[in-house]
């Protein structure tokens, strides 16, 4: 799983920094904390603060409302904190992640689990809880949540395909290498 990025399918992940890695001396569980840098397109009303322009505006709103919709002042650069636990005894892996960027407006908490299903198969589960934090602007919050869910689904699909490619490449390398004599 530490080889998941970079891969050709997840080009939005541009950097990965390992912040901490420890091994519990009693359980042998490996805990790794990483920060991932991502770059991807976001709706203009999230990333740009620009003057109101009626022809370019999708909604018929006032100048003040357009400025409110663009007040997020975000960027296409985003950061995600990931913490993973690898239990060598049970061969279970748990990964949690949460967005650091724009978290005052919305959070995406992701949980991934890998566990053995048989000697040749692995169970994979992935869930995410996405929540916009703009109770006063319900329509904006709904729009943001909808966009975040769509983006998460796209990235989750690409991430799974990318990790499958990485695992396939590692498996092929292992089986191509001459066995030690």
From TrEMBL:
Residues 1-175 form the PRELI/MSF1 domain. It comes from the Eukaryota. Signal peptide: none annotated. It holds the Pfam family PRELI. One of its GO terms (cellular component) is mitochondrial intermembrane space. InterPro entries: PRELI/MSF1_dom, Slowmo/Ups. This is PRELI/MSF1 domain-containing protein. It comes from Cyclocybe aegerita.
């Amino acid at each position: 799983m530490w080889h998941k990025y970079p891969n050709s399918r997840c080009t939005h992940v541009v950097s990965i920094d390992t912040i901490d890695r420890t091994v519990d001396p009693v359980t042998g569980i490996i805990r790794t904390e990483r920060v991932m840098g991502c770059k991807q397109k976001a709706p203009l009303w999230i990333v740009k603060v620009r003057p109101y322009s009626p022809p370019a505006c999708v909604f018929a709103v006032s100048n003040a409302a357009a400025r409110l919709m663009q007040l997020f002042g975000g960027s296409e650069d985003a950061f995600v904190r990931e913490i993973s636990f690898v239990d060598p005894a049970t061969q279970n892996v748990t990964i949690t992640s949460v967005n650091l960027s724009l978290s005052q407006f919305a959070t995406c908490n992701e949980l991934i689990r890998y566990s053995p299903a048989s000697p040749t198969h692995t169970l994979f589960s992935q869930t995410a809880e996405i929540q916009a934090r703009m109770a006063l602007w319900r329509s904006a919050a709904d729009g943001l949540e909808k966009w975040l869910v769509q983006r998460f689904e796209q990235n989750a699909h690409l991430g799974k395909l990318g990790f499958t490619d990485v695992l396939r490449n590692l498996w092929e390398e292992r089986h191509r290498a001459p066995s030690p004599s």
